[in-house]
């Protein structure tokens, strides 16, 4: 398997050009009835259409045909990191999602509060879906746990979810889940699955033992299970593999976390698209590459709200002139995956993609939408190759071979 | 990584069919303004258009999306050799470019004449860009160097460039460049970078020592640096991987060299397209596969001369009837990469490709150009798969599996 970074490491050059990635989460969609228009095609998007007319369109395949990615592999692919090569554990993703700055000595774990009976058998794997407020109180209680030789952090997630981090030397990340994925049986032991993770397993055991004591009067949330026990993957930094200073402008912590994972600078995104654009302008001179993340095309799709997703797409379109006004060498507009509102979930459908640059080959597109993209000059391509195309159009890649 | 040769070795058969590859170097282009026509679309090409109407079109990706290849990887891909797997060093390519018949015991090196001061520090890495005539005289002088145990060849390149070949047993090809890529510092030593190349490093050291004496009165070209020290890659021959006798008809030495590298017979190409076509006719019965190389679509593109590239494309078109008159089973017309005249350089843009054979599926194309190719039946495909398609249409591949 050819890794794009084998090329970018050798061929990168700095010519002072600027690349902007505008990522509309879950951008791709489906029509409400056969032959109809998708959310993006329904939206009135004069600014994206103008980019489409002078750019080249295509459809991005996030991982492989038929594979619907989560946010982690979806974004890694867009950033040019092979999502098959770099896997992000569930625990790591949860930690990124609460903006916890994970380090290389950290083991991150997703905890689920659960209910156990007097025989310690699990009766409810989600503790009656307690509120986030109660979950936060219980997480604060567990944050008092002390274990010799490591630091322990417990941070609230949503509802019955919590995030546990062990920080210390020689902690492997290969420990099995304690959630038995069933009720009527006890939680499993946190067993090491390979050499080098025994210490982590032992610490998890001590943590669970103390947690059982601390939570014994907190039914229905009188225990917790541990899942997705993992460490940060070894991801080479953006600056090394591409030779660019990258800035991330994302409102949601998960996406800041993913950007941090690949070594981008995390810029203050405020709370609105206007504030994101102001940050883009402010940070313009200090970066070569920008990642702008727009969440609401995904969340409206997840909610099954077709018209809201149309509206959220139009809001993004209205912000595009502030990008083009900066005259970036390359503008890319795409998503990390599709989220058709008819499916209320991430899907595998290829993602509409637009590259606008002076070196684009004309493909006859007159607007930005799935149908135009299907006939676009980029064809259908693997998302991990998008960075290569963006760098090529930016003049940031030398010729390969003589 | 799937290697096309894993299939062709197993599935090849000889049915007496003929395949002709007409390679227009740098064929792909860009319009002069968005919405305009490319060079190929502007050219009046009735003969190529006729092939397009009865053939199938597509766009070839030379290496990976966004990667602009040099001539070496570009042609290896067309010949079905994975350009990521087979890398050709700079020295080897220089030797091929002057038609030097490299053998398996040869180490090829690109030399650059340079200027050094009395402290042996480099003051000009290109020796004031001396003329090719002076460079040839100095190369002839260095060609007198004798080193026990090896043969030494020094051949003139263009201007300040020269090509040095050491021929002998046990010469590794992994020696570092002596060009420090800077002035004000001495040249580097030719150090072996891995076991097995110490002998080569030692010979390079002796060569440089003698060269310094011979050139000491030849300022500004009073020394030389050595770059791209390398041996021929191990490339399995065309006859073995495809079971075809291939003939190359290329006017420029570089392309004869690349064809020789994959084991083609090098045929006398003369100097004109007419002479190339006459050779095609003369050699017709003795070969199964022909590689015809047309340089000027690339050189006119490199010069930024849109209208000259159009004209050079039309000249190629005018020669096509002499190919079709021979009634080859399969005709392929494509390029090794794009060279848009607006960019004056090789580019990564996918390359227009045409296959004409009786077994072609109709794709509705009415002419040969980037827009037709974008909508063509071959879609966008990796160049290394083109040989598989050509052999299939020629009836030269058995069914895979039962």
What is the helix content of chain A? 25-40%
Relative strand content of chain A:
15-25%
Most extensive interface, chain pair and sizes: A-B, 32 and 42 residues
H and E order of chain A: HEHHEHHEEHEEHEHEHEHEHHEEHEH
What do the pLDDT scores of chain A average to? Answer: 96
Please count the helical segments of chain A: 14
Give the oligomeric state of the chains in this entry, treating copies of one chain as homo and distinct chains as hetero. homodimer
Spans of at least 5 consecutive residues with low confidence of chain A: none
Instruction: Identify the CATH class of the largest domain in chain A.
Output: Alpha Beta
Biggest sheet of chain A, strands in spatial order? Answer: 9-8-10-1-11-12-2-13
Instruction: Indicate the radius of gyration of chain A in whole angstroms.
Output: 23 Å
Number of domains of chain A: 2
State the end-to-end distance of chain A: 23 Å
CATH topology of the largest domain in chain A: Alkaline Phosphatase, subunit A
- Under the CATH scheme, which architecture of the largest domain in chain A would be assigned? 3-Layer(aba) Sandwich
